[in-house]
Amino acid sequence: MNTSQLRVVTHMCGFLVWLYSFSMLPPMIIAIVNKERSFFVFLETFIACFILGGAAWMATKRTGIQLRTRDGFIIIVLFWLLFSTISAFPLWLDDVLHLTFADALFEGVSGITTTGATVIGDVNALPRSYLYYRAQLNFIGGLGVIVLAVAVLPLLGIGGSKLYQSEMPGPFKEEKLTPRLADTSRTLWLTYLLLGVVCSLAYVIAGMPVFDAICHGLSTVSLGGFSTHTESIGFYNSNAIEFVAGLFSLLSAFNFTLWYVVIIRRTLKPLLRNAELHFFLLTALIVILITAWQVWHAGMYNIPESLVHSFFLASSMMTDNGLAPLDYADWPTHTIIFLLLVSFFGGCVGSTCGGIKALRFLILFKQSRHELHQLAHPRALISIKIGGSVVTDRVMRSVWSFFFLYILFTVFFIWLLNMMGYDLLTSFATVAACINNMGLGFGETVSTFGTLNEGAKYLMCVAMILGRLEIYPVLILFSRFFWRV
What we know:
It contains 21 helices and two strands. The chain is an all-alpha fold. Strands 1-2 form a two-stranded antiparallel ribbon. A hairpin with a 2-residue loop joins strand 1 and strand 2 (389-390). The longest helix is centred in the C-terminal third of the chain and has 27 residues, at 393-419. It is globular and about 65 Å long.
């Protein structure tokens, strides 16, 4: 890395850390209102990030800074590493929580990557400031702080398109919602915020207390999964609340650009015409019905209750939300394994979900069907189309390579956990929960991920970040050709 590139990276990371320091203010206010000692650890984190980030930003400030593609990859990876570490500090510094650095880092990474896996055994005992802070981590990480940063980059004289393309998920990264990138990021955030407000209000109407509704609204639309209770949504024992959680899990898995167009044009036509959304909803319906039949057949619930509970948990796990009913650990093992497998599906591209994404599976499905047609009619010229657009060879190669790498890393992490002494079910469930940013474990991690040893916690932190960044931005930094001048 040359001096100029180092200056650009330091400048951007300094600005992002300075900007992120302000996220400590809301939990500080909640701590003051509730007279909690946690105010001081949030204050310490705020001061440290404000000063260090601001100093790095100002010390490297100069006109005419331009970001290249390679700079974007470096900043994105450093951004998630820095924010994960910073997110862990309030949890680590507070002696009352008794968390080791590995525990605090796992919780911080889980929050900011919207995984929702927790090492805290008794969430009910946490001060309100931490309950809100965990939900806020989910919300900030949901669409990516980097998209918010891009909105103000023009004020700094820095082009942000390379950052935006590195951060946004999916094979069609070059597409923009509006002509100006800053407008794109603002509209995405406004849409995201509006959905969060509506979700919180729906929770209140369903009977949830206001504070809990706000926290669950933030974690639901981000598909993050952190709850204000150890029992998650099951604490309320309410079909209405489970329905709201399941519904907004699905709605939050829609492409947010679609939501924006729906709101601006005041028409549902974009939803009716989107091929990926149709594929996602059809898959969700099949998964929900299969799950409902399995739990009803096992004699756990009657038909109406089977439908409600299955709608909630299947929607939550498929979209990688991770909120859960009270007794999901008692569900048939084959049902939970089925839902863990479904968590690899995720939601739509451009949403806050984890996993491989529906669009990629749709492309793979059509490619497989295309091969069958080609075998039957070798001379036929058949193109693969999604919503009327032809899928290019470049996109096809990208999808296949990503799918291969995703499965490869999943198997690798499962093997490593198994080598550490965990049984195969625990290893698979833990890796699925982390790399898919889904958060619900099984086996030894069914109630808390605190049962993992420190090495396994650090390993799963890597899995969560890889899943959130969709592997490539991390891998490319370890390639020799990336660093060639």
